[in-house]
Amino acid sequence: MLFIPTFKLVQKLLLAKKALKLEALLKKLDRYAVVCLVDIGYVQQDREEMEVLFTFLAERYERRSVMITSNLVFSKWDQIFKDPMPTMAAIDRLVHHATILEFDGESVRTKKAKARQTASKHPKGSQQSFSWV
Fold first, then answer.
1. Could you list the residue range(s) of the whole structural domain that residue 22 is in?
2. Neighbouring residues of 35: CB distance < 8 A, sequence distance ≥ 6
3. What would the mean pLDDT of 101-106 be, rounded to a whole number?
4. Of the candidates 34, 37, 24, which has an alpha carbon nearest to the alpha carbon of residue 80?
5. Would you state the pLDDT for residue 125?
6. Higher model confidence: residue 132 or residue 34?
7. Are 77 and 42 a contacting pair, CB within 8 Å?
C-alpha cells in the first residue's frame, strides 16, 4: 500500500509525462495493490495536472484499488478537475465498485487540539478557585 499526498503524486506524474516516462511510472505504481491519495480536495490543478491525475485514476480502474481522502463532496469536485467531463468520468470510475465512508462531525485533530488547549489552561493537579459576588 502506498500513502501519498495527492499533490505529490500529481507532481511525480507530471514530471514523468514531461520526460516521456508516464507509462513507466504508471506501471511502477501498479506494483501497489492500493494507492491512497491523501487530501485530494486540497489540490487545485491546472489542465495538465488534472489530465495526469485522471490518467492515473483511469489506468487503475477495475485493475487496482485507489483510496481517497477528501474534504470535498463529489458535487464540489469540479474545483479539482475544473471541467465537468473529466470530473464526472473520474467520479464514475471511483464509485463504480467503491465503498464510500463519509464521516460527519469534528475531526480527530480538532478534538485533540481542543483537549491540549483545555489541558494547558487547567494543568493536572492545579486547584481552581471561584469567587461569587
1. 2-105
2. 1, 2, 4, 9, 29, 60, 64, 65, 66, 67
3. 77
4. 37
5. 58
6. 34
7. no
pTM: 0.74
**DSSP class of residue 42?**
G
- The CATH number given to whatever domain includes residue 61 is 3.40.50.300
Q: Are strands 34-38 and 65-68 parallel, antiparallel or unpaired?
A: parallel
22-45 pLDDT, tens digit per residue, is 999 999 999 999 999 998 877 666
- Contact criterion met (CB below 8 Å) for 45 and 87: no
CB proximity list for 45: less than 8 A, separation 6 or greater: 10, 53, 80, 81, 82
Beta carbons within 10 angstroms of residue 33's beta carbon? 9
Residue 119 domain flag: no
Domain count across the chain: 1
Alpha-carbon distance 49 to 80, whole Å? Answer: 10
The grid coordinates listed for 59 are 489506468
Which amino acid, residue 56? F
Is 77 inside a domain boundary?
yes
